[in-house]
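User: Run a structure prediction on this.
Assistant: Running it now.
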Amino acid sequence: MYAVIRTGGKQYKVQENQILKVEKLAGTEGSEIEFNDVLLYSDGETITPGNPVVENAVVRAHVVEQGRDKKQLVFKYKRRKGYRKMQGHRQHYTQIKIASISV
């Protein structure tokens, strides 16, 4: 059994007991989050695509961790001009564990 959900402008294929990192969501560690944007649902035999979402489908997850990723370096450079610029960026994320998929 799996589902495709949409959160943070991205789509994720999820299964029960799966742990994944998504864009930052509101909630503290241990709290429960519901995803209602279920784009596709499969129970192993039949696949139910949404139009645009599957009706009455809910994916429940628990927040495992709130954190920040490793630093990504952004380096801008223009040749022969003496222009160099370096910046760093650390993206916030929420690590979740999928508890249940129900329709």
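Strands lie at 2-7, 10-14, 19-23, 32-35, 38-42, 47-49, 58-68, 72-78, 83-89, 92-102.
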